[in-house]
């Protein structure tokens, strides 16, 4: 059986792992290579590294860091942040990244998704969406690390991106991110059940039960979390043992 | 003894190189025919699309070179699929080392997605490639096409239906999953290949 995936996310700023609440109040959470290697050893199924300063400050993702990660880690990893061209992606893959994630640049230029999937294959193109549920009850797409609201609906954009060749969706609910109150079950379920590609749920995972909910109720293919792992609130082996106990297909540690 | 990774227009070659470095083995990445032929062992990796990869191999005369190699060869992912007879991916005639055909996953229900991405268990393990690896070990897969079960199947995985996740014939081995990304299980498989 194909397993549900547990994915620690490392937000990178100036070469360090950071974690904040609702996209602000960043705290230092350690060296990304050390942390990544530790998570791999503990049974993480994949890793995501997001250079969260890249888009805003118009920096390119740190290729050297990616190269160092690739040399130390024996599980797949995705790199995102500030990626806006085929050349950016080519350089990251050359340095050992398995997948890349695009967000703001892809929204501004959807053709980018098509170019990337044609050049490198859909399997390495992850579309990251930051979304917030507004008072009207609709989920809207946000850009630039959650700073810029758009009028686009989350599902519509995800659907368009998949049609263009995105191979996976990394869905972050801004309402839930950093709150530890559970994942956004409704929008995750809509995407996971109505799109033909895997959906990674992100934002809000605070207890082991939250992971059960997002896999069982939302049918997410993977769940991503950061602070609960970085600050050792939940250990990956414990989480995986718990999920197995709930009869969820998990790769044993 | 030289270990060569065949360089061509399909991705993930660096990942294989780094994985070998992690287990203490240096490899040479090359498309030089003589160097490939002289190598002690050859790895034929690949992530990408079958028809463009085959076109590239033919243009560089690597198709004939690969088919005629006598030393142990390990195809990975697309590399394994290209070693089969035929792929439905853009109606591609492949190298024909293995008789098996490569088909697209066509799930009957909506709950299985294509491509398969993630960790799946592998079973019915045969040959020294899987020495000391427990049945139902987990490996990392990313693929939308699969090789059917056949006489050369040496490991099975189940997605939509049971299929060949590893093939073997003479000196040729192929694995559908990515040993270079499959944590300890993958490292053991790479080590086993190196000690064939």
TrEMBL record, chain A:
Signal peptide: none annotated. Belongs to the HisA/HisF family. This is Imidazole glycerol phosphate synthase subunit HisF. GO terms for cellular component: cytoplasm. CDD domains: HisF. One of its GO terms (molecular function) is imidazoleglycerol-phosphate synthase activity. Gene3D superfamilies: Aldolase class I (3.20.20.70). Keywords: Amino-acid biosynthesis, Cytoplasm, Histidine biosynthesis, Lyase. It comes from the Bacteria. Its main location: cytoplasm. It catalyses: 5-[(5-phospho-1-deoxy-D-ribulos-1-ylimino)methylamino]-1-(5-phospho-beta-D-ribosyl)imidazole-4-carboxamide + L-glutamine = D-erythro-1-(imidazol-4-yl)glycerol 3-phosphate + 5-amino-1-(5-phospho-beta-D-ribosyl)imidazole-4-carboxamide + L-glutamate + H(+). The keyword Protein biosynthesis does not apply. Pathway: Amino-acid biosynthesis; L-histidine biosynthesis; L-histidine from 5-phospho-alpha-D-ribose 1-diphosphate: step 5/9. It comes from Niastella yeongjuensis. The active site is at residues 11, 130. Heterodimer of HisH and HisF. IGPS catalyzes the conversion of PRFAR and glutamine to IGP, AICAR and glutamate. The HisF subunit catalyzes the cyclization activity that produces IGP and AICAR from PRFAR using the ammonia provided by the HisH subunit. One of its GO terms (biological process) is L-histidine biosynthetic process. Its EC number is 4.3.2.10. It is an enzyme of class 4 (lyase). It is found in: Cytoplasm. InterPro entries: Aldolase_TIM (IPR013785), His_biosynth (IPR006062), HisF (IPR004651), IGPS_HisA/HisF (IPR050064), RibuloseP-bd_barrel (IPR011060).
Automatic annotation (TrEMBL), chain B:
GO terms for molecular function: glutaminase activity; imidazoleglycerol-phosphate synthase activity; lyase activity. CDD domains: GATase1_IGP_Synthase. GO terms for biological process: L-histidine biosynthetic process. The gene is hisH. This is Imidazole glycerol phosphate synthase subunit HisH. It catalyses: L-glutamine + H2O = L-glutamate + NH4(+); 5-[(5-phospho-1-deoxy-D-ribulos-1-ylimino)methylamino]-1-(5-phospho-beta-D-ribosyl)imidazole-4-carboxamide + L-glutamine = D-erythro-1-(imidazol-4-yl)glycerol 3-phosphate + 5-amino-1-(5-phospho-beta-D-ribosyl)imidazole-4-carboxamide + L-glutamate + H(+). It comes from the Bacteria. InterPro entries: Class_I_gatase-like (IPR029062), GATASE (IPR017926), Imidazole-glycPsynth_HisH (IPR010139). Pathway: Amino-acid biosynthesis; L-histidine biosynthesis; L-histidine from 5-phospho-alpha-D-ribose 1-diphosphate: step 5/9. It comes from Niastella yeongjuensis. Heterodimer of HisH and HisF.
């Amino acid at each position: 059986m194909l397993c549900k995936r547990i994915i620690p996310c490392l937000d990178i700023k100036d070469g360090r792992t950071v974690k904040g609440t609702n996209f602000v109040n960043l705290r230092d959470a350690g060296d990304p290579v050390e942390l990544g290697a530790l998570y791999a050893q503990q049974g993480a199924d994949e890793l995501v590294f997001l250079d969260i300063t890249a888009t805003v400050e118009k920096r390119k993702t740190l290729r050297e860091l990616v190269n160092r990660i690739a040399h130390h880690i024996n599980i797949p990893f995705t790199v995102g942040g500030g990626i806006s061209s085929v050349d950016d992606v080519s350089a990251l893959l050359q340095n050992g990244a398995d997948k890349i994630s695009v967000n703001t640049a892809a929204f501004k230029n959807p053709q980018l998704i098509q170019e990337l999937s044609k050049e490198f294959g859909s399997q390495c193109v992850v579309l990251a969406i930051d979304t917030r549920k507004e008072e009207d009850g609709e989920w809207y797409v946000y850009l630039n690390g959650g700073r810029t609201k758009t009028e686009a609906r989350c599902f519509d954009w995800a659907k368009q991106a998949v049609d263009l060749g995105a191979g996976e969706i990394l869905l972050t609910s801004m309402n839930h991110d950093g709150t530890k109150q559970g994942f956004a079950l409704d929008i995750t379920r809509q995407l996971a059940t109505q799109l033909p590609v895997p959906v990674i749920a992100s934002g809000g995972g605070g207890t082991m039960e939250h992971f059960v909910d997002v896999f069982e109720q939302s049918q997410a293919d993977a769940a991503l979390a950061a602070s609960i792992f970085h600050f050792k609130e939940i250990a990956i082996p414990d989480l995986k043992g718990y999920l197995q106990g709930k009869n969820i297909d998990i790769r044993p540690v | 003894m030289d270990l060569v990774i065949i360089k061509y227009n399909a991705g993930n070659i660096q990942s294989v190189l780094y994985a070998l470095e992690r287990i203490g083995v240096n490899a040479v990445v090359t498309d030089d025919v003589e160097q490939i032929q002289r190598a002690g062992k050859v790895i034929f990796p690949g992530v990408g699309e079958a028809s463009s990869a085959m076109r590239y191999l033919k243009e560089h005369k690597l198709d004939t070179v690969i088919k005629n190699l006598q030393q142990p060869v390990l195809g990975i992912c697309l590399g394994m699929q290209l070693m089969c007879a035929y792929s439905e991916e853009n109606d591609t005639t492949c190298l024909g080392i293995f008789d098996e055909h490569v088909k697209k996953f066509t799930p009957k229900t909506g709950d299985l997605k294509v491509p398969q991405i993630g960790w799946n268990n592998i079973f019915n393990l045969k040959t020294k490639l899987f020495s000391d690896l427990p049945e139902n070990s987990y490996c990392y897969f990313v693929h939308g096409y699969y090789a059917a079960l056949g006489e050369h199947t040496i490991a099975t995985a189940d997605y939509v239906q049971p299929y060949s996740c590893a093939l073997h014939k003479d000196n040729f081995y192929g694995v559908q999953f990515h040993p270079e990304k499959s944590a300890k299980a993958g490292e053991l498989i790479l080590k086993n290949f190196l000690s064939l």
